[in-house]
Amino acid sequence: MIIGIIGAMDEELELLLKEIKLEKKENKASMEFNCGELYGKTVVIVRCGIGKVNAAVCTQVLIDDFNVDSVINVGIAGGIGKNIFPGDIVIAENLVQHDMDTSAFGDKIGQIPRLNTYDFKCDNELVELAKKACASFEKNFFTGRIVTGDQFVADIEKIKWLSEDFGAVACEMEGGSIAQVCYLNEIPFVVIRSISDNANNGAHMDYEKFTPIAVKNSTNILENMIKIM
Ligand code: ADE
Fold first, then answer.
1. Is 197 known to be catalytic?
2. Helix or strand run (H / E) with residue 127
3. The pairing of beta strand 189-197 with beta strand 70-79
4. Which one, of 221, 195, 192, lies nearest residue 122 by Cα?
5. Does 172 sit in the ligand 1 pocket, CB within 6 Å?
6. Of 95, 100, 107, 198, most Cβ neighbours within 10 A?
7. Which of 32, 24, 27 minimizes the C-alpha distance to 5?
8. Domains (ranges, CATH) in the chain?
9. Tens digits of residue pLDDT in 184-208
């Protein structure tokens, strides 16, 4: 069984790449795929770059060229809601792309036109494993919907909209497109993120401050999860 692990940025994968027993590196679509063993499991770890297109290309390459059986996306996210704080973990149960809008045709915002599903559901088993990993790490965690768009959200009105119209607990810029590619290819996936900011007006400053702790937390959860897989 081969597990594909995607992070958007170098800083999100830095800690994991220190742990991999590297067997080979391969370049494809300007991305470096690190193949090897992580805690006894065969993995391919790759930095996809920021945004939905990078993430989608990366996921398809993992599936086609590296034959991964499942995909885990780790990294940071903006928290949505009063009770969620930097450092907290969010395990996605499903994802929606908040920047998809064909409402002119009567579609709900987020619906990919002519696709059979509104949201992209994470694999139950992987979600349960991620929850177990959080419990053994004694870490506060949330489960629910993560919304994705090609936007860094730093606006209170926008968070209100993401919360009220989507019921989202966190926002980021890759998970929903990784989810869509996995859905199209029938590959199980899960998205695990740690909160770096509250997506409000000071988000870019909180982001700088809290990213290192958020990365540490999401990496720890992933490590625990891989050990119990
Ligand atoms: N990733 C981390 N924080 C984010 C935010 N506020 N908006 C989008 N993606 C993020």
1. yes
2. helix 124-137
3. parallel
4. 192
5. yes
6. 95
7. 32
8. 2-228 (3.40.50.1580)
9. 999 999 999 999 999 888 888 888 8
